[in-house]
Amino acid sequence: QFKVLDIFRSRESGSLHGFASPSTPVDFCPGRCECQHPQHLLCTNRGLRTVPKPGARVPEDVLILSLGGNFISNISAFDFARYSNLLRLNLQFNQIGVIHPKAFEKLSKLEELYLGHNLLTRIPAGTLQPLKKLTILYGNNNGIKKITPGLFSNLDNLVKLRLDGNEIEVLQDSVFRSLTNLHYLHLESNQLQHIHRNTFSKLTNLRFLDLSQNKQSAVRNVVTFSQLKALTTLLLSENEIQYIGSHVFQNLKKLSKLSLSNNKISRLDSSALKGLSSLRELLIDGNELEEIPAGLLDPLERIEKLDFSHNQISNVDSLAFSRLKHLKVLKLKNNFLTSLSGDIFALNNVLYDLDLHGNNWTCDCRLEELKRWMTAAHSQGKLLTVFLQCHYPATLRGKYLDYVNSSQLQPFGNWTHLCRSRAGPEEKRKVDEVVTTEGNTNGLESSSQRSRPVPKAAGKRTKGRRRPNVFSKTDPSATSAPSNATDIRLTTAHPAQTAEKFELLRSAQKDPLPVVTDPCEFNRHFITNVSVDQVTSATATVYWTTRDHSRYTPGPGPGFDEVHYRVLFDRFGTPDRFPRYVYAGGASRSVVLRELSSDVTYMVCVEGVVGGSVCQVAPRDHCVGLVTHPGGVSPGVTLTSDLQVVTVATLAGNAVLLLVVGGVWLGRSVRRRLQRRKSAVHVRHMYSTRRPFRPAVPTASVSADFTTYQSSRPARLAPLEEGDLIEFPCDRFLDSSTARRDNDMQRFSD
């Protein structure tokens, strides 16, 4: 029991005569509560069964009362009568089943009321009417079955209302008409089956509406959401919706997210998405859709993310995504797709995340154009890896399209007439150009640039032209590059190759070289000895070697073609990373990077370009790091020499440190021994053994003392024990041959 201290106060001078002052919480703090903060009464998790009574006087600065986590079952009319200045009242996680209609009558200043996680089945009309300044009301996770318009009367300042986790089945006409300033409305996890067409009337400021996890079977009426003109998020997931009516969202001009996930939608009306011009995210996964027709998604002018996963889609029109200029993420995984048109994503220039996993893909010639588009997008750094795994034919089952050669995409079944005639395989394309890139642009070539052959002059060197601040037209990300662009020029050698090819053909007939068809295998097994040399403040030279190989080109007759290379380099360890690529053609095995930034760390990787294709997996085994020198460093200084100097200096420093530590330890050890010798007391005690005593001075007294002690055990067999040793007094047996060392102790010998 809490007892109030009897104190005496002087009202005029305010002097204290007892143990507590009027400002301390001692005289008003309820039992079992903490009142250390004068504005917050903390009574959570105290095992309370009723609202505790306050002390004699409740100060006016008490603004928060927390009663959560107790066993309170009833709120009477007088429980909060003395807390007229409360701003927040927390009654969550109790067992409240009844609230008196006048329980909050004195709380005219209350702004936040939390009644969640209780046993309420109804809130009497008029109970909340005195709460004119209420902005947040939580009534979630109760057993409320019905709400009426009179429940929220006079709550025109309410901003957030949570009624989720109840058992509401019907939303009546204009039930929220008083909540003109409501922004957030949670109605998920109820039993909603019917929503009146005027339920959300007057909610012109509502921004967030959650109706998920209910039992709605259709969204038909155009009027239902027509007045929610400020709505930005609408969640209708995990219902039983089978049908979406035409133009039901046409007035939601500001809606940016719409979730229809995990319903039973099998078909969308052609005008179902009309009016959603500002929508950025549409989630319709987990339904029963069978196709995506042309024109269905055209109203989604600003869409960035589409999720059609876990449906039954077997057909996607080639123009389904043609109007979606801002589409970045598209998920089509776990459907029944077998093929896609090659140019279906040709107009989606900012698409970077494409999920096609979990379909029954037939890897035949119909996917050749799609593979070519994916290869071009990958090489330009525009697209993340797409996991398109072949299911048919059996010879390609389990393989990913990225690693399937175009020559293996043969007509399958009865689809021969749908396959386009291939004028020339992509393996015949040569990338012999020397690329000039800007320092802070990505240096990517367009597909047309890579496919256009460039004549080579034997024995001559082709140099790239310097074009400062020029961005690639095919790279949308180049427009956001920093303005302080520096020029990186690449110089490669193109020696004559006619004799070399004849020699390669001749040697191939005698001892065939390994055939290179896959860029990933080429990077892993044929590129070796990547190194960086001649690093200065503005230039660096990258070297690499390759093992002997042959390049098979399918066609009328077998032939051999060279493999090209590209170098990826980027600033290492900086937040604003921006990778750049430069391409090398011919037999060149070195690249000179010029006009680099001084005193900057770069990561350089070398990879092969096989038939115009590159590996989607980064060649981490063929990467080296380089650090450019500060301004003024001579060009002859290399990275290798720097590393050697640093290594030698480190070893020398470690050796000196070890010598110093060893010297200190040895000095301390010698010093301790010297101190022990100086402070040692030269005292020796005489102990008898099992041998007979032979006194140096044959006196009667000495022989008498030792003849009485004889061991019954043999000296050689009996173990020596502590009890067999006898200590003799020092003053009786003096060694006449030794000098006196001390006044009290003498030195003796046995």
From TrEMBL:
Q: Which gene encodes it?
A: tril
Keywords tagged on the record: Leucine-rich repeat, Membrane, Repeat, Signal, Transmembrane, Transmembrane helix
Report biased composition (Basic residues) as residue ranges.
Answer: 458-468
Annotated region (Disordered) at: 426-489
Record has Transmembrane helix as a keyword? yes
Boundaries of each LRRCT domain copy? 359-412
Gene Ontology, cellular component aspect: plasma membrane
- The residues that cross the membrane are 645-667
Name of the protein described by the UniProt record: TLR4 interactor with leucine-rich repeats
